[in-house]
Amino acid sequence: MLEPTEVNTRQSRRLLRYLSVTDETPNDLWMEIAALLEPLDICSLQTTCRALNQALYRKPVWAVALRQVCREHCLFLPTFPIDEMDTHQLFRAAMGPYRFNSLIEGTGSFAGHADDAPTLSPAHGPFTMSIVIGASSEWGTTYLVPGGRFFLTFDCKVLALWDLGFVGSVKSVSGPEPRRMAYVDFTPGNFVVFEDGKGFMAVSMYQDSLRVVLFGGSGRITLEAFEISHFSETGASTFRHLGELAVDDATANVKQLVVVVDGDRAIIFASAGKLIIWDFVSSIYVVVKRVHDNLSSSPVGNRKLYIHNVLIELGENNLRITDVPPDFVLNFGKPVPLGGAVSLATAKTSTLPTPQMIQYPPPNDKVDEDRMFPSVGHWYQAQLPLLFDVYRQYKSGCTGVTRLSFTFTRSPLGGIVPAPLTCIAKRAFPAKRTFNVIDNLGSLHVPGGFNKPIVTSMPDMRAIEMAMMGIKLKPGSEIRRYIYSTAGAGEAFNKCSRSGCRKKEFAKATYKFCSGCHLVCYCSTQCQQAHWEPHKQVCKDQKKCNASGPIAPPMRFVKLALEVADPRFGVLGICAGSGRMVHSKMSVLDPSGMRYVGSNVHISDFLS
């Protein structure tokens, strides 16, 4: 029998042998391991022993992890100067989506009244930055590139790309001045009859480059495509011109035009039931005649996106999916006319495969058709499953919202096989305020699996008009914005829904929910009784929202702390992958959902 000291000696030798193997493992192998794991799994391995912690906490490992996060969660890789970042910066950047996810779920609570939601304040900021949008106009449209560092602006006179600094690199309250990395000046008349400065653009990430399609005009629509693929840390970068297309359509107006971009293609939704598929790299196009069906929305009102060669249009009560074969443009396309325009009146048309229609769940109450607000929002992911919100304004005054999930597969013959719509979350918001979305380009980037939509709470239309004119609103009439999460009761620690308590539970899913609405939870009977009076009406409204189907998980809410007193300040972009928010004063609130901003923007970083 071995003595205890001899056993301990053998165990120590075995441990030293393992540590030696771990130390001697080539970096290339650890990089291969990191490429197969999520950052959370790498962190878990690091906690198992000191040897693995030292082996995995290396710059090459976390550089690979960051590249994997950008690829999996649709973040723009050039945002991060990987070669110049140290290990700690790489680690924090790779963990950004997970940290923002935990921040929302840890701070948010199941608030019956959105006003009761906890406030989410930034860790750094807001920083005020001067960004000139155009040479002489204070109007324009913007796009926050996923990752939070790059910011596109366009006003028909200048297209510019700004460097705001990557998240975590700036901690000074004053903040740095943004650097204009690249720009394109347009000569007067380049976008004819569109010189009032209301610029429109569609943006797509293509590998490590940005592709931008600008469009404007009335009667004759001008479209130009650009690409930028070199992002210099110190010097200037340049936009590369990819192509130009002019479309003659006597009934068209740019405010009614919708353009979506993916890869080498731009899909232009024109009037007269036609669309144009434009391959701006090959300089060919095809005009497609639309199938008239029962899509419950105007051509402008529905939301459109292009995923895996499938065109998805989100209407008020249903969605339409249309297959766009990869070789469709090559087979039926024509060269773009040089110096001329495509006439929709005389152009030969082709036909896409017959679209399929899928109905949304029925409304929970009588819909008020007179309250004109966007009915579908938060469709930002360019990946499956597609998550989006359906908003319905009811005659009773309350707002019902349903979170839906949609996906599809391909049959062996290549046909589209749609899956049934899945309800992710449901709730009703109280009357007297309108809860909805005001969508604009990049208003909330959603990395895969980290869906944190933003909701806007607005007073009546008169109050909104007063806010746009700069008139100070009465207390309670402000425009408020919230981020919500659909994490269920057992997925994160819950907080008491009474605003005066907010006590966090010791174990998950131990607090009891209201049996009437299943919307709020309480730590004790005393908190439930104290909160009943303000909760009573919300509970009644929520029962209507739950009446038409199974009860879905409620929503955890946090209120955004916009530290600017002016109610006209609106959110221009939030990147859920890095926790950065960009907001500015809304000079005009256009029905199309675009926001036009002045020369100052404010940046807030929510991750420390």
UniProtKB/TrEMBL annotation:
Keywords: Metal-binding, Zinc, Zinc-finger. Pfam families: zf-MYND (PF01753). It comes from the Eukaryota. InterPro entries: F-box-like_dom_sf (IPR036047), Znf_MYND (IPR002893). The keyword Ribosomal protein does not apply. GO terms for molecular function: zinc ion binding. Gene3D superfamilies: 6.10.140.2220. Residues 496-539 form the MYND-type domain. The keyword Zinc-finger applies. CDD domains: F-box_SF. Transmembrane segments: none annotated. This is MYND-type domain-containing protein. The lineage of its organism: Eukaryota, Fungi, Dikarya, Basidiomycota, Agaricomycotina.
